[in-house]
Amino acid sequence: EVQLLESGGGLEQPGGSLRLSCVTSGFSFTNHAMSWVRQAPGKGLEWLSSITGSGGSSFTADPVKGRFTISRDISKRTLYLQMDSLTVEDTALYYCVKGNGESCYSPGDYWGPGTLVTVSS
Amino acid sequence: DIVMTQSPDSLVVSLGERATINCKSSQSVLYSSNNKNYLAWYQQKPGQPPKLLTYWASTRESGVPDRFSGSGSGTDFTLTITSLQAEDVAVYFCQQHFSIPFTFGPGTKVDIK
């Protein structure tokens, strides 16, 4: 059974940093791309970043490029999102998403329950 | 960026009736090399993460009831629920996974009449 579980969210001040983690199980971690998608309260979905199954390539949305960095630790089967220079606009529920293939262009077939990030002074 | 639009914003349908949701992309999401449309549909129920319903515009994800079907090509796509059930009350999103950034439509809320 595929399982994704995010952690690392919480309350952070503007300008601060958080590192989100997503522990995975139930599938071949190196054969599937992984992504982060966020959803602000009561709003729609926003793709943030994706990384290939091998970890050799990654892509990040312009609004967070230079502030957010995606990475993965194959030995720990864990996906990360390092978030720096946080602003109030980063307040959202952050989802970890498994792609149904190795390429970042694969659709997301499993989503974690999400971890809530609140940026406020 | 490819802009995704959906219509209608919300839909109220009687149990057992058909629900039709439209999605339009500002550019074609058809990849000519493999003739696949990089368009996915997701269902999101309150308090839950999105669930993949269809991808490549019309391929139903494993385990998804066959009352859900996706169609369309190029820039115009449709998600059809042929016989609405109570458990289908949700918000439905389309997403293009053709070019970065992978953008989502704003969502269509489906309710029971």
Describe this structure in words.
The complex is a heterodimer of chains A (121) and B (113). Chain A is mainly beta and 121 residues long. Chain A contains no helices and 11 strands. In chain A, the strands form 2 sheets. In chain A, strands 2, 4, 5, 6, 9, 10 and 11 form a 7-stranded mixed sheet that branches. Chain A has a 4-stranded antiparallel sheet with strand order 1-3-8-7, with no helix packed on it. Chain A starts with a strand and ends with a strand. Chain B is mainly beta. Chain B is 0% helix and 50% strand. Chain B has a 6-stranded mixed sheet, with no helix packed on it. In chain B, strands 1-3-10-9 form a 4-stranded antiparallel sheet, with no helix packed on it. In chain B, strands 4-5 form a two-stranded antiparallel ribbon. Chain B is globular and about 40 Å long. The model of chain B has no long low-confidence stretch (mean pLDDT 97). The chains are: A mainly beta (121), B mainly beta (113). Chain A binds chain B through residues 35, 44-47, 50, 59, 61-62, 95, 100, 104-114, and chain B through 38, 40, 42, 48-52, 55, 61, 93, 95, 97-98, 100-107.
